[in-house]
Structure prediction request, 105 residues.
Amino acid sequence: MDCIFCKIINGDFNTEFVLENDYAVVFKDINPKADTHLLVVPKKHVASLNELDDEILLGKLMMTVKDAVKKCGLNSYRTVINTGKEAGQEVFHLHIHILAGNIKL
Prediction:
C-alpha cells in the first residue's frame, strides 16, 4: 500500500508518536496550522469518514482525541475531519486534526 499514514504507523519514517494505543496513533502534523496541530490516525486503513462503518472504532478515535489533549495539557481545542478532496482531505486515510492555540486556517 502506498498510503503515507500506513507507512508512518508501520514505522517506516521513525515518526515520534505523542500517543499510541491499540486503535490509533497520534503525531504532530508536519505542516502545522496552529501552535499545536496533532493528527489522530486509526491503525486500520479507512480512506475517509464516508467509508467508516465501525461505530466502535469511531468511538475509540474520539476517546484517543480526549486522551491526547489531556496528555498535552490542552483545555481548549478544535477537532476537524476533512472528508473528500473538495473538503480539503489530502491524505486518503481517515484522520482527525486537533488544533489548539493560534489557529491559522
About this structure: DSSP finds two helices and five strands in the chain. The beta strands are 19-20, 24-28, 36-42, 78-80, 96-100.
